[in-house]
């Protein structure tokens, strides 16, 4: 691990905290998405669920939770609200009722076409070139992997 060039006092400044940079950026990003998603009737967590299902429909709740880093206690009420809105269906496995498969409805599939402008809006708002945004995304994903991987 590289030695810090910051003094202990500098290391404790809010603006020198990676966690705060990520947290405050996440808040800004969510705020940016809010009006775009309101047009579709989606919340940000619901949009994330839809992104996964548009990519891989018919997932088990457990697989969806793993993909989104959400536990079933958080995901289940979210999915129930989305089912009530008509965007997806939840089907219990006949052999094992603990296993629930999530499938898009036709209304959920139609939302995908309505959401096509969102990535471009986010790219424009970021004021980044596409390669820069892709690189930044990959760096944050790599950091997440290092933080969530078991330490040797």
How would you characterize the overall build of this protein?
It comes from Rhodoferax ferrireducens. It is found in: Cytoplasm. It holds the Pfam family Staph_reg_Sar_Rot. InterPro entries: HTH_MarR-typ, MarR/SlyA-like, Transc_reg_Sar_Rot_HTH, WH-like_DNA-bd_sf, WH_DNA-bd_sf. GO terms for molecular function: DNA binding. With about 150 residues, this protein is mainly alpha-helical. Among the domains are: about 80 residues, Arc Repressor Mutant, subunit A (Orthogonal Bundle), CATH 1.10.10; about 30 residues. It is built from 8 helices and 3 strands. Strands 1-3-2 form a 3-stranded antiparallel sheet. A hairpin with a 7-residue loop joins β2 and β3. The radius of gyration is 19 Å and the shape is globular.
């Amino acid at each position: 691990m590289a030695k810090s060039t910051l003094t202990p006092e500098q290391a404790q400044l809010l603006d020198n905290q990676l966690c705060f940079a990520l947290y405050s950026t996440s808040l800004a990003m969510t705020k940016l998405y809010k009006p775009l998603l309101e047009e579709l009737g989606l919340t940000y967590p619901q949009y994330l669920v839809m992104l996964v299902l548009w990519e891989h429909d018919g997932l088990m709740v457990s697989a969806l939770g793993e993909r989104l880093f959400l536990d079933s206690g958080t995901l289940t009420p979210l999915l129930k609200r989305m089912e009530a809105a008509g965007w997806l269906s939840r089907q219990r496995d006949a052999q094992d009722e603990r296993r629930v498969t999530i499938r898009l409805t036709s209304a959920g599939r139609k939302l995908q076409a309505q959401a096509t402008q969102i990535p471009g809006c986010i790219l424009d708002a970021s004021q980044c070139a596409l390669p820069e945004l892709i690189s930044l995304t990959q760096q944050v994903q790599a950091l997440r992997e290092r933080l969530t991987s078991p330490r040797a």
